[in-house]
Protein 1
Amino acid sequence: MSTNIKVKDTPFKPRRVPGDIVFAVVAVAFALFLLSQLGSETTWLKGISLGSQPRFWPAVSIFGMVFFGLVYFIGSLRNLANQEGSVGKEILFWLRGLEFTIWFMAYVFITPVIGYLFSSILFCVVLAARVGYRSLRSLMISAGLSVAIVLLFKTFLQVRIPGGTVYEYLPDGFRNFMILYF
Amino acid sequence: MDVLIAGLETLTRLDVIAALMVGSICGVIIGAIPGVGPAVAIAILLPATFSMEPIVGLTLLLGIYGSSMFGGAIPAILINTPGTALNALTTYDGYPMTKAGEGKRALSLAYSASFFGGVFSVICLMLLTPVLAKIAPLFGSREIFLAALLGLVLVIVTHRGQSIIAAFLVCFGIFINSIGMEPVRYTQRFTFNQTWLSSGIDLIVVVLGLFALSQAFYLLTQKDMQSKAPKLEGGMFQGLIEVLRNKRVAVSSSSFGVIMGIIPGVGEFLAQFFSYMLAQKTSKSPEKFGKGSPEGLIASEAANNAVPGAAMIPLLALGIPGEALTAMMLAVFYVHNVIPGPQLFSTQPEFIISLYLALLFLNILSLAFLLLSTNILLQIIRIPTRFLGVGILALSFVGVYSLRNSVIDCAISAVIGVIALVMKRLNLPMVPIILGMVLGRIMEIKLRQSLPRVDHVIDFINRPIAFIIFMLILLALSLHIWTMFRARFRRQ
């Protein structure tokens, strides 16, 4: 029986896995970078109590990040020998996630150009094909899903998504209809 | 009585009824799909609810929140995969029962226990309302600051074995909240002279990145999960009687759910865990736990479903969300300028009663829906997970883009999604970031409000409630440090 979905966000899964050390290094480096910028990126005003200073909360959070990041990093170092699996493979897996970020951003960029309806159909069908659903039935279901999403959110719930530039080329009445509902 | 009638009147409005039904049914369905969960659904729907009236939007989100755990029991019991992370303990006894040919009995028990827990928490909520209405006004800015601090401390210490990284992530959440123009003196903080950072990073952008986009990326990068639910035979109503027969377990577990739900930063998992342990310790047949014990199943389901109602208490009474889902709901309050907190009980009591009643009805609706449609819902479990990923990504776009039609918001959300994907792979918690953002904001505002009234640090805790909360903070920290040292001592 497959159990790919594991319990996340629970207090009872404290094991450390490959890649943990990389995360710890990046976390500490990021915290130290923020610490180096604290003086220039926040303001200290004269005659105001410490708790009301604009710098107070960024400073509290950054010092906390540095401290806890360093403790976590030390813990990762100490656990390095006990970790099974390849760090390189894990990082490659993370990078695979970036591909879908590009897909998502492409969807964001084409929507104002070709309109929400067409961009959604294109996005769902092509992405479904990319991840392996290439039968006509799967592609039809993907297109149906995208149309359902557009109908629910744009047509019915009227969420704020602008009409596409290509709608400008449509006849007057139809153009307004498309901008309003699709 | 007048308030109750006014609350009922609100609930009979057509738009509220529609929101309640859609929320309850969608919540059950979403809960039944492994890999989606209420956090993803609420994050996606959040911007869409901003155009609705607060009671309609909140009823919809509450419906999803409260009913998802009903649905989450289905895959937990039938295919050993919890529909939501909060149904994890349900697999311990639910799946062995399925293997023993008692799948339908297990489902019936889970639905009935969830119903019991849900109704129990609403009753507690209603009984507590007069007390809350009296206590809530005693919370001034100092007390709310300390309560928010207590929430942060608890969210750190309850992540046992991960408290260091939870503390780091809480601080990270506070930092994200501090980016942009500071609200009192209007100075810039960590904007790096970029105009797009001046307005800060929106909570919803972060929420969608952390919960929805990351889940889509996670599903898309995994292999499809092959799961087939077994055929179910037998009646669906026997569980109701069986839960009543085990009322001791049901009541104690629901009580744990209520208590854990009220305490900010603790949540469902601890409620389940403690109630399961107690049920096992007090059972006449503890050896059956983990092998198909009906008591174990009742304990975990009654406890987790008692939490949503109770979690509304700190949110409504103090404006302090105890976990990620109520933190998202807080956004709906803010958008509509309804400020949850002590005043809400005196100014809009009918609003609060409507929410309570909505919680009650959503439990009834969810139970009825499940008793009649479980066989249809079994088909949902079979949706391929990568296909779900495509759907979640398309839905996430609506959530982020419809906020401000901003490409930058989408880019920030996508980056946060990748960070959260890495965190998922490393089994790191994400809730501390959200609570850090929300509670960090509350703490900043309340600290500033209280400072002019404080001459010395000790004045912060010179009022009874402030002193009690402060002592609770010290107690939580002391207990945590003590258990850490004890664990280390035992290892050595």
Protein 2
Amino acid sequence: MRHRLRDPVTGLLFVLPVLVLFLIFRIFPTLGAAGMSLTDWNIGGEWSFVGADNYARLLDDTNFWTSLRVTLVYAAVYVPLTLLVALGTALLLNQVVFLRGLFRGMLFLPYVTSFVLAGIIWRWIYEFDGLINGLLAKADLGPVAFLEQSALVLPALAVVSVWKGFGYSMLILLAGLKSIPGSYLEAATVDGASPWQRFRRITLPLLKPTLFFVLVIETISAFQTFDTIYVMTGGGPARATYTLIYGIYEHGFRSFDFGYAATWGMVLFAIVLVVSLVQRRFLDRGNT
Amino acid sequence: MTLTASRPLSRAAGAARAGRPPVRWPLAALLAVLSLLTVSPFVAMVVVALSPAGRPTVPGRWPESLTLDNLTRVLSSTGFVSWTVNSLVYSVVSVVVILLTASMAGYAFAKKRFPGRDAMFWTFLATMMVPFQATLIPTFVLVNELGGVDTFWGLIVPTLANSQAVFLMRQFILGLPDELFDAAKVDGASELRVYWTIVVPLTRPVLATLGVFVFLWHWNDFLWPLIVGQSDTTRTLTVGLTTLRTEEMQLSTLMASATISVVPCLVVFFLLQRYLVNSIAMTGLK
């Protein structure tokens, strides 16, 4: 088109606001994060170049290894649980016609609220004189200290995030299920395949790309969990919920050790990058 | 899988053929139970918010009487009101600016040619892989150096560089036929006029969807407002809620605050549920 070739300036002018915002607030901080991790930047804005000292300190920091373990355990509980709940509810929504819109809305409702709200409600639900222990007391059980025991606190937090977030994956999986041609399942039914066989041999293989997408998205969000931890446990008890992001927050905004906090951020970046690259690798293979 | 034509039709397949799916009552009942379980924390929150103050609600028992006292008390506390106003400013300004800048950039990326266009676009996309939390420290230091801590611009401006929005707008505008824009150019319309009278009206459905998401992202946002909004002047509702501690105040007051904070989300949800649901399924926006 001629007019488009004639006028490169308008194109640039239309991009300019976004370009300026990106250069200043996305690209510069991304490069800055790498640069800062090589300095001892502090609250006063003074800094000197310290080379790889922060990374060496990281490797010697037991809190760092604790946070890595906590983050991985949390993801290992959260991701399968979310996928299971999201897939189960998506399958049910796909099968049941009765009041489907209402049920879908109810299941999706927590997704539009905030993690802070989820944390506030569930902190009370888990408390000694909270909802669950109140119900347990009626059955002469408990009380259970959900948020005060190292063994229970991570699964308890994972449940909160699952409750808050599964609606998103449920909708993605439901769209995936809807795209499976009904004739495949009908043919299998005619063939005498049991519901389990139909699920195992037809639905699941065809749903695999969607499941993989959801798996990657939920893994990344597991690594980014912060709000519920801040509200419900503050990283405790005894660092049992001290995740990578909590480490970034604490070093940055409790001890104002910006250089070292940026180093923690680089680890988070590396992990998310690896997960994203694995996703691309698999998706590319799936397309060929 | 092999088809054996001689096998008799099962009852379910027969019913499906007749065009009347069988009502699967056990599955429907299971779905109903799960749905009720999912909303029950909200119901519990509202019940406590409506209970008379003084921690009277034995958990698991319905309160003897309901009252609006907690809600009115929360709404008349100055802190809470200013947090709500701040959240509204944070969300609404972000929606307006992001819709405007992202649709302009999306139009240029989709329909204009200029030097460095593709390199720029892919760089924007690549920044999606950098989690915001990883750049939290340098972004804060930058805003701090520029004097933006505890100001509205410091709160809002860094969140306006949204690659998902630019990407979504570009993909949608790419699908619009070139002829529309060319015809307007032939008629002598200026570039701004083309943008305002053709691009904006044609992208209205995407703009609406994006607007809903940007609103929810900002209304529910926590980590950035937590570190930038350090006093009640700029503190948002999510951050304000975390400063309320149950030790110092009635549980019913806390739950009343929580209930009010969720109202905008519920309004968006009830008005635009179908919209939200479809756009998540189609675009994967999160």
